[in-house]
Amino acid sequence: MQEMNFAHFHGAVPKYRNYGAIAEQGVLFITPEANAIPRRYDPFEDSQGLLLDVVRTGAAVADCDVFMDYCLSQKILPLEDVAFWRCGDFFAPNPKKAGPLVDILLDFVYRYGLPAWEPGSSVLTTYPARYGNRAMAIRQDAEDNDISHALHYELTQRACMRSKSGAIPVCSLALTLLDFYLRFMEEIDRPYFPIHNTEWGLSFEHKKTPRLTAQVYDLVTCINLAYAHLVSVQGKAVRQCKHCQTFFVAEDLRAEYCSPRCRGAYNSKMTRKRVKERKLREGQ
Ligand SMILES: [Zn+2]
């Protein structure tokens, strides 16, 4: 059989004109403005822009020390959004510390809408590499036999789906974007990308390459498909420039710099550093 032609995605993701952050029962939610009417848009129209915004926002979560310190201090391992129902939300009780990250997440939501937050599912990820040692040191005490928080969590999900036009807790959104960042940038070994809320179609003719088409109604699935297409079909990658730290789409999997100018600048910086180190050594 010939290879499948796997390049025809269309997104129909709901997006509202405005969103706000609202605390309810000790948890901060991002929710569409009251009585707003959603419109549909297609994230595949600029899938590279989407992927870059995903890693930029995910990097902001990874770099938010106060949030990571909180998760470590509560012994949340692995990082799972349901755990915030057990030990208490970080975002609602800490408006000052959490404010800058909430603003960055809201910016992302204004542009792309909210991922679907569905009953029975939970967001699961790990710690960025630089927290590896501290995360390893966490010993989860006695097995957590109290699952009442899980029931409360699922009831909250159902209430969000039913009455709040798809509101989700800030902790769930933060972990969703952190997970993308880790999988795309730190390449943690979890090559499984779930597909939700998608209508598939197949068209083929005798001896012609079958064409698989997808109409996607879920933002997370759009991100998964856009990334799979970028890496597998186009052979490109999302990278962070070693010199200027900008995120960029690289033509080559081995690319380390956003531009020849940054490669040159980084190399001369390293040369200067080596010369300085040698002088110091020789001076001793
Ligand atoms: Zn650069």
Can you give me a brief rundown of this structure?
The chain is of the alpha+beta class and 284 residues long. 44% of the residues lie in helices and 18% in strands. It folds into two domains: 5-235, no CATH class; 255-283.
Q: Reading side by side through the largest sheet, how are the strands ordered? A: 1-10-9
Please count the beta strands (DSSP E, at least 2 residues each). Answer: 12
What small molecules accompany the polymer chains?
A: zinc ion
Summarize the biggest pleated sheet.
3 strands, mixed
The number of helical runs is 9
Average pLDDT rating: 89
Counting helices, strands and paired strands, the structural category is alpha+beta
Q: Enumerate the spans where pLDDT stays under 50 for 5 or more consecutive residues.
A: none
Task: Give the termini distance in whole angstroms.
Answer: 69 Å
Globally, the shape reads globular
- Helical proportion, percent range: 40-55%
Q: Strand fraction band?
A: 15-25%
One letter per element, helices H and strands E, the order comes to EEEEEHHEHHEHHEHEEHEEH
Summed up, the domain count is 2
Rg: 22 Å
Would you write up a description of this structure?
The chain is 44% helix and 18% strand. By secondary structure, the chain is an alpha+beta fold. A hairpin with a 7-residue loop joins strand 9 and strand 10 (211-216). The model has no long low-confidence stretch (mean pLDDT 89). The structure holds zinc ion. The site of zinc ion (ZN) has 8 residues, from loops.
